[in-house]
Amino acid sequence: MQPTRLLLWGGVGLWVATSVVCFMLAGPRVALRSRSVGAGSVAALLGYVALLLLHHRAFHGAELLLFVALLLLSLLMLVGWELWLVRAGITAVEEQIATGCSGLFIASQRLPRHGVLLTVRNVEWRIRLQPLGPRLTWVVLPRPKGRGKVSLLVNWLAKQYPGPFPRPRIRLK
Amino acid sequence: MSDTRTIERRFHIDNTPEAVMAYIADVRHRPMYVPHLQSVSEIEGEPSAAGTRWNWTFSALGLDFEGTAHCAESVPGRRYVTETETGIRSTWSYDAEPAGEGTDLTVRLEYQVPERAIPFLPTENVVESLRNTEADKLVQNLKEILDR
């Protein structure tokens, strides 16, 4: 494999692998988010382009196809649906969503097949939930434009289920 | 020695002063509308009452800052004040006045930056801009949640 292609796979692969490993090693109540994986992948791909430009190199055949495919996939993760893999059981996630809805005055209703229907000012939004194990849930959240109540709910849920990367904690005295 | 700074916002909410202040006074609601407040935990006392204490985690610049705070004053439908006890000392006060069928709410944040910390902070313009952005988002969020 050409060194540049190795870099292309390596950069994106390393980011995705690091995200997954941190997620596996982190404690409960964390989430791996499609948006952050997509953002990291886009950054790695742009870094790769910068490297090519620096070395006056161009894409070759399959390399360009691979790059475009990875870029499209990464952009889709960045701006498409809000997909989360949450380290919590589906019941705990449902309860957390109910708490958020109650605090934000959002009418919510559990759907028969793993989901929650939100109603804000006569507009309906769906949260889809899929259990992947006793402590692992796949969550598809809406991504509304602007700063409405549904955005506030998604932001609040992100605080309840932070990302898997360790963050320095400073205890103020 | 410390440097005291103040940020204030006055705005209208289309809801009664009682409803507005009941929502604000419940400390469990705070991460829903304070943008960078990650969580409140270990609440000691009734969530809306004067004297209640809690731990907070504030996330900024990729770091989690943890500290404690308490409710200094709580007058249902009129006034609510909290004070942080650790780190950068701050006082958050919320004052409600009836205005038509709604409420004029004044949110005032006073905080003290220890002089020894000033050299380590970003420039004053950057800090002020961050604080103002945070305050504007807080106003938008409260209106979004509480407007009828």
Describe this structure in words.
The complex is a heterodimer of chains A (173) and B (148). With 173 residues, chain A is an alpha+beta fold. Chain A has two domains: 3-80, no CATH class; 85-160, TATA-Binding Protein. Helix content of chain A is 51%, strand content 23%. Chain A has five helices and seven strands, in the order αβααβαββββαβ. A six-stranded antiparallel sheet of chain A has the order 1-2-6-5-4-3. The longest helix of chain A is centred in the N-terminal third of the chain and has 23 residues, at 3-25. By secondary structure, chain B is α+β, with helices and mostly antiparallel strands. Chain B has one domain (2-146): 2-Layer Sandwich (Alpha-D-Glucose-1,6-Bisphosphate, Chain A, domain 4). A seven-stranded antiparallel sheet of chain B has the order 1-7-6-5-4-3-2. In chain B, a hairpin with a 2-residue loop joins β3 (53-60) and β4. Chain B is globular. The mean pLDDT of chain B is 89. The chains are: A alpha+beta (173), B alpha+beta (148). β7 (169-171) of chain A pairs parallel with β4 of chain B.
Classified by CATH, the class of chain B is Alpha Beta
Structural domains of chain B: how many:
1
Kindly state the number of beta strands of chain B. 7
Biggest chain pair interface? A-B, 20 and 24 residues
Show unreliable segments of chain B.
none
The whole-angstrom Rg of chain A is 19 Å
Strand content of chain A: 15-25%
**Element order of chain B: H for helix, E for strand:** EHHEEEEEEH
Amino-to-carboxy terminus distance of chain A: 54 Å
The number of distinct β-strands of chain A equals 7
Strand content of chain B: over 45%
Task: Set out the fold topology.
The complex is a heterodimer of chains A (173) and B (148).
Chain A: H1 3-25, E1 31-33, H2 34-54, H3 62-79, E2 82-86, H4 90-103, E3 107-111, E4 115-120, E5 123-133, E6 136-141, H5 149-160, E7 169-171
Antiparallel strand pairs in A: 1-2, 2-6, 3-4, 4-5, 5-6
Helix pairs in contact in A: 1-2, 2-3, 4-5
Chain B: E1 2-13, H1 17-25, H2 30-33, E2 37-44, E3 53-60, E4 63-75, E5 79-84, E6 90-99, E7 102-114, H3 124-146
Antiparallel strand pairs in B: 1-7, 2-3, 3-4, 4-5, 5-6, 6-7
